[in-house]
Every structure is written in C-alpha cells, then in structure tokens.
C-alpha cells in the first residue's frame, strides 16, 4: 500500500541504516544474543552514524530536527533485520525528551554533547520492585541536604532498560510526601551520574525476550546528587512523566507494528523454501489464507501507527490516542507473530530462526509503557465511561 508518511530524506536514511545493520550488526548479533547485551562500544558507532543527534539542537552537535520519523525508520529497519540496537532505544525515546523539555541551558550544555556521541548513555528509572503501573506509589526518596548543595538518594529500581551500560539515569524519587488529596504530588526527577558513590547496578535481569537489551536492577544508598542535576521543578515529576507517556507509547506501538510486518517477511521466505509432502508450504491454501489475514491486520496497524506518528510530530497526539494505538498495534502483533510462528512448524521454536526471537521480544509490548488493561482504562475514560 502507498504510504505518505516518509519523504526522500527518510528513505535515504533507511538505505544508510540498512547497509549499517548488514555490515555492523547482523554478523555479530548471535554473539550479542548469547552475551545478553550489545557491547558498549557499539553505541559510539551509533553516535558516529548520527542516530542519537537527530532531535538534538545544532548548537549541541545534533541535526536540530523536530520529528520522530527517522526514529520510525530505524524501528522498521531493525525489526526487518530481526535485530535490536541493545538498550539504545531508551537513550533517545525515553531520555532525550526529558532533557529537551526540562533541562536548563547550563544542563543542556553539560548533557547533550556527550549524549549525541554516545559518550554518555541515558536510561530512565521509574519502576520499583513493588510498583509497576502505580507510579505514584514509589518509595525511593531524595532528601535535600542541610546546606542545600545536594540531595541524598535512597531506594531501588527494577526493570531498567539500558541500566547496565547507562552513564546517567533519570531517577524518579520522592522529595515530599504525597498530599491527602493528591498522591501524585512530591515526585521529582534527577539526572544521576552512575559513577556516584552508593549507586550500584544489581542483577542484569534474565528476560524472556529482548535478550540483547541490558535490563537491570538499580540500588541507591545515600547517593549524593548535586542540586544542579535536578530536572525541572521539585515535586512536579509526575506531571513530567505523564507528558512524555504519549511518545513512549507511540514508540511501543510502532515497534510492535514493525515486528509484525517483519514476521510476515520472514514467514513468506520460509514457506517458499520449506517443502512438505513434496510441495512448498506456500502452495497450501491454509498458508495463503493465514498470511493474507496477517497482511490485512498489519496493513491496518501500519495505518494506525502512521496516523499516530503524524499526530505526534504535529504535537497533537493525545493520551487516549496513544493508548489506542498501543493497544491496537500490540494486540495485532501478538496475533500475527503467533500465526507466523505456527507456519514455521517446529523450526519456529528454535532461537536460530528470527521468528522465535520476535515471538519472545514482542510479548513485553502489552506490558511495559502501561499494560493493555491500563490502555483500555485510559480509552474508556476518554469515552466518558
């Protein structure tokens, strides 16, 4: 189907990216998979490629563009190749929006030049062992010192993507107790230097999918965070988090759609090559009907993902629209990838085949960034229900 969302610049970036993936990622991806993370020096290569600087102002070494379309192309191309770029996705999709929105000029100068080159990789630490979707229930605290020069950070975070390699982590912590009429009050955001004394990375978590993405537990024991590393205003963190949830959920929706599209590509290749009862699997009516149904679903998901992308770039993507896109695209991907794996037969269960890795990687899409159930609550509320 003809798409109008991308122009010549985006397609030129696609060609560059596709060549980079073939040369730098595909040959070593099995090693990354076995190690459970991409090597740290790979992020310097992404910096050289310009991936981290697309939305960063030119004065800090970026391209100064205000668009998510190059990010969308990257999402499609990594899915197409059956690879991921480790934990680097959170660096751009989760880290950068907070810097651009909240950082002072002085902070931007300190943070962004190293952000663009990959010298400082960023992550976001929101989730705690006892709090998932209930962000307001976090227990991590940041107390201002008596002399007002720094905060003292104590607590723990879990499921932190990019947490092993991160050089700075945006940590959400309580600077004040919640109010009786507003339990969301009292949360603040800090750009914490991971080399700080008392900061520690616990287990690198053993996940079902996204094996090349380093996901960790973090602990803070009397970590001193300079007041110069407070992002935005004290106690207003929950509102900041909500402001960026729409773009985060768009990113998950787009990733899920791209995975489903890739699953069809892998399966078409497989069923044309695989012979059963003396005939290619692709010649059986069931195969044709299954893949046709999958294609129809992916066409619909592409339209939803593209529409959300246009709205996001225009600054018009609402919380309910983002929730709807995430719910629809992740559920489509779940169905499509499952059916595509079935068409692979026993080989679909083997990790050497991209479809098996896609199946595992895709499962978390209906959980992180807000579960499908939470998305339904947001949509229902928007409907006035």
Automatic annotation (TrEMBL):
Source organism, top-level taxon: Bacteria
Protein's UniProt keywords contain GTP-binding: no
Record-annotated Acyl-CoA dehydrogenase/oxidase C-terminal domain positions: 235-383
Cofactor requirement: FAD
Pfam families on file: Acyl-CoA_dh_1 (PF00441), Acyl-CoA_dh_M (PF02770), Acyl-CoA_dh_N (PF02771)
Pathway involvement of the protein, from the record: Amino-acid degradation; L-valine degradation
GO function terms (MF aspect): acyl-CoA dehydrogenase activity; flavin adenine dinucleotide binding
Annotated InterPro entries: Acyl-CoA_DH_CS, Acyl-CoA_Oxase/DH_mid-dom, Acyl-CoA_Oxase/DH_mid-dom_sf, AcylCo_DH-like_C, AcylCo_DH/oxidase_C, AcylCoA_DH/ox_N, AcylCoA_DH/ox_N_sf, AcylCoA_DH/oxidase_NM_dom_sf
Signal peptide range: none
GO terms (BP aspect): branched-chain amino acid catabolic process
Residue ranges occupied by any Acyl-CoA oxidase/dehydrogenase middle domain in the UniProt entry: 123-223
Domain Acyl-CoA dehydrogenase/oxidase N-terminal: 7-119
Keyword line: Branched-chain amino acid catabolism, FAD, Flavoprotein, Oxidoreductase
Protein family according to the UniProt entry: Belongs to the acyl-CoA dehydrogenase family.
Protein name as annotated: Acyl-CoA dehydrogenase
